[in-house]
Specification:
Layout lengths: L1 E2 L12 E13 L2 H13 L4 H24 L4 E12 L5 E12 L1
Parallel strand pairs: 1-3
Antiparallel strand pairs: 2-4, 3-4
Length: 105
């Protein structure tokens, strides 16, 4: 399946629009990851633990969106948009959502 943030795929005209598809993932950060991130925040640098969680959540949401597109008979998704939000009373949960248009090229 071809995935792109652009509205078209050069050299591959859209034959059929199947509709909007979405994928969502909500993932929690545990106490150990919070502790490790606080050390990174104090000393500076990148937080590898949070980056791994972020990548995992994005991959999960994208996979869900692709499965929904395949169920519609699509072989590509164009115009993909990714959104990242923290949710929960203490903002301890990360939500990643994505959407795009399922198409046949």
């Amino acid at each position: 399946m071809i995935l792109t943030t652009t509205p078209a795929i050069e050299g591959h005209p859209v034959q059929e629009y199947k509709g909007v598809v979405t994928g969502e993932t909500i993932i929690g950060a545990n106490v150990l990851k919070d502790f490790m991130a606080s050390l990174t925040d104090f000393f500076g640098g990148r937080s590898g633990t949070y980056e791994k969680v972020l990548i995992q959540a994005k991959d999960s949401a994208m996979k869900e969106m692709m499965q929904r597109a395949q169920q519609l008979g699509a072989n590509a998704i164009v115009g993909i948009d990714l959104d990242y939000e923290t949710i929960g009373q203490t903002s301890s949960m990360l939500m990643v959502s994505c959407s795009g248009t399922a198409v046949v090229i």
